[in-house]
Structures are given as structure tokens and as C-alpha cells.
Amino acid sequence: MRPLRPAVFLDRDDTLNVNAELPPEAWAHTKEGDLLNPAFVRLIPGALEACRRLTDAGYVLVIITNQGGVARGGGAPRDIDACNTALRALLSPADDDSANIPDPFRASLVTACYSAPHHPSGDVHPFNNEHHWRKPGPGMIESAARELGLDIPRSWMVGDKQRDLDAATNAGIPPTRTILLAPATPTPDLTAAADRVLASAIDPAQTTRLTLRAASGAPLADERARETVIATARAIAERTGVRLIELDTAADSVTITLATHRLGALGFLAELRRLTNAWARARSGAALWPTDR
Ligand SMILES: [Mg+2]
To answer: Which residues are marked as active site?
Structure first.
């Protein structure tokens, strides 16, 4: 028997492909948000590269998606399949520009898609009911694990809704392996989520955790300041190749965990302090952090 493989379960809409930002024409025949037209399947920037890195690291990628629009009469299960096929084609392993030309015959980075067409307030039989496949039900993940031979305790879930994460924990994925994508958090998108998944394989002895405390007051209670600190840390990580494992902000501090030794982490923190202080001084005349340490 083949050993079980770890997976990254991915929500579809607004995790891999654009949904909330689609033009009004996308909803000509459906309720807004019910994406059942493959012509409007568009990748979120960075999603392809994030999927490539995860599969390179040995994770099986499985899409699990609620598509209650079918229960609401917006389309048929074949329309879900058409969208999933278009998305899988865009998520091609080919490392060239042709990756953005949908080709259903090309292998995909995504091994399988599971969709739940059900919705309890729909009126299309037999989908107008609650169903254990519909997130936060665990059904899609359980079926995928069984059919594809997946190792649930070593798997991850990434989605933009709490119910995505609940489906995962209901299926037995550890809560520490569920990632919510949300603006102005350390995981705004799939790129950041992939960083976190890949960082989990790092030896804890090779990581350093450091905190930067405000000179006074609670400057990170200001949302723009907080967002700037997070974005700057991510930019430094990208530029230096030092992996940013975790970033936590409080009103008066930022704590970062880096996959590097203490000296490297101190250099990272000094750069974060220098750049964000320069930004804050230009904005309000006051530095965020003390400059004498
Ligand atoms: Mg979603």
C-alpha cells in the first residue's frame, strides 16, 4: 500500500480565483458570487506560483468548494465542472507564458476538485438541503482523503471564510494547520499561506523570535501603520530570502519569527525598524520605534 500523502485543501472562490472583484456581467444569470460561467474564471495574482511551490514541496492540492448556486437554480453541476476545469487548466505546471492559456489536456497542479452544489434555502431538488459535503461539513475532505490516500493530520486547509477552516477541523485537520486569508493579516493571500505551510517544515532550532516595542503609545492601533509594518516585513523577507514564519502585531509591538539564526534575525529587525521609522517620520514626524537599540 502506498504511504498516505499530505494535502493542502484549497477553497476556490477568492482563494484561487477572483470572485468578489468580478464585473457585474459575471452575475448576469446567477446570484452575485455564484460563479458558474467559466469565462469569468480568473486567477488571483500569485496563486499559480504558490500552488507550484506547494506541489514542489510534495503536497497534493485539492480544491473543495461550496457551489450552492446550483441549488438556487443558477446553473447545473456541469457548470461547476466547467469552471473547475478552467481553473485547473490555468493552474498548469508549465513554467512559461502559455500557462495562462487554458488547456484541459495539460496536467494540472491541482489533483482533484470536490464541489458541493447543495444549499438548504435553494429550491432545486435534490440539492435544496443541508449536506455533509457542504462546508463546514467535513464530507468533501473525507471523500478526498479516502479516494486519494491523503494524510489528514499532516494536511492543511486554506480559505477565505471561517466555514472553510471549520470543514477542515471537522474532518480532523489540526486547527494549527488551517489558514484564514484576510486583508491586513499576516496571511492576506495564498502566497503568504504557502510561506506558512512551507515554513512549518523548518527545524525549530533554526528559528528566531524577536519583538520590536514602540517608543511610546500604541502606534500599531493605527491600521495604516500596522499594514505598513506587515507589508515591509514581507518585502524584506522577499528581498533577503529569509523566511518569515510568523508575524504577530499588538498595539505597541510586532513579534516576528524567522527561519534564521539570531544574528540574521537581528539584522532583519534592524532593517524593519529603519524602513518603518522612515515611513512614520515622513508621515507624522515621529518614529514608531526607539532608534538607540
Ligand atoms: Mg471563498
So the answer is: 11, 13
